[in-house]
Amino acid sequence: MGTIALEGLEFFAYHGFYDEEQKIGNKYSVDIVVTVDFSEAARQDRLSATVNYEELYRITTRVMQRPARLLEHIAHSIITEIRHVYPTVADVEVSVSKFNPPVGGVCHRARITLRG
């Protein structure tokens, strides 16, 4: 068992609880960690025996293009789509960060992490 991680994926997207956020957009960051048995891929040197991180990026891009109100919903959607493409993964952890969230003061980013 091992992990495959993509860290610091950045997107400009139109998510947010407030309508204004969905109109003006914001910068987001996504981190993904997938736990999977890739021992066969390591032995055989075959991409088909593991999780392709290029596909993880494509999945994340598709989800980030669909407006959502909550960061939790974004993370859940990414996990659901990863599990659909790769049903044998043991665990998926997704963190979604929103830069400069509207909190009424200085905040570099708000971040949620979901495992599924």
From TrEMBL:
<comment type="pathway">
    <text>Cofactor biosynthesis; tetrahydrofolate biosynthesis; 2-amino-4-hydroxy-6-hydroxymethyl-7,8-dihydropteridine diphosphate from 7,8-dihydroneopterin triphosphate: step 3/4.</text>
</comment>
<protein>
    <recommendedName>
        <fullName>7,8-dihydroneopterin aldolase</fullName>
        <ecNumber>4.1.2.25</ecNumber>
    </recommendedName>
</protein>
<feature type="domain" description="Dihydroneopterin aldolase/epimerase">
    <location>
        <begin position="4"/>
        <end position="116"/>
    </location>
</feature>
<keyword id="KW-0456">Lyase</keyword>
<dbReference type="InterPro" id="IPR006157">
    <property type="entry name" value="FolB_dom"/>
</dbReference>
<comment type="similarity">
    <text>Belongs to the DHNA family.</text>
</comment>
<dbReference type="GO" id="GO:0005737">
    <property type="term" value="C:cytoplasm"/>
</dbReference>
<dbReference type="InterPro" id="IPR043133">
    <property type="entry name" value="GTP-CH-I_C/QueF"/>
</dbReference>
<dbReference type="InterPro" id="IPR006156">
    <property type="entry name" value="Dihydroneopterin_aldolase"/>
</dbReference>
<keyword id="KW-0289">Folate biosynthesis</keyword>
<dbReference type="GO" id="GO:0046656">
    <property type="term" value="P:folic acid biosynthetic process"/>
</dbReference>
<dbReference type="GO" id="GO:0004150">
    <property type="term" value="F:dihydroneopterin aldolase activity"/>
</dbReference>
<dbReference type="Pfam" id="PF02152">
    <property type="entry name" value="FolB"/>
</dbReference>
<dbReference type="GO" id="GO:0046654">
    <property type="term" value="P:tetrahydrofolate biosynthetic process"/>
</dbReference>
<comment type="function">
    <text>Catalyzes the conversion of 7,8-dihydroneopterin to 6-hydroxymethyl-7,8-dihydropterin.</text>
</comment>
